[in-house]
Amino acid sequence: MNPDDNASTHRRWADVAHLAAQGLGACAGCKRAVPLNNALTTRWRNTIVLVVCEDCTTSHDIVMQRTAAGLEIRAEPRRAIVLASTLPTSAPESGPR
Description:
Elements: H1 3-21, E1 24-26, E2 33-35, E3 39-44, E4 47-53, H2 54-59, E5 60-67, E6 70-77
Antiparallel strand pairs: 1-2, 3-4, 5-6
């Protein structure tokens, strides 16, 4: 492992621990610090591995699956559902009469 990668990983985990001590977590979607009691959290081996705020969970589905390398966590955006259309119901007339 590259020493720079190791130092970077250590800094990230230190940041996570510092926020958690304050009852906060960094949202994986928008990167904001959010209160853990108002966020979706996922733990693995008693460590918080994912924090997603309420705003991000309303617009994304969180998908987790086990892989050969470990745990994969993805956020898939929800697609808009058209409940009503503002388009005219009859086809517009084309060309001059």
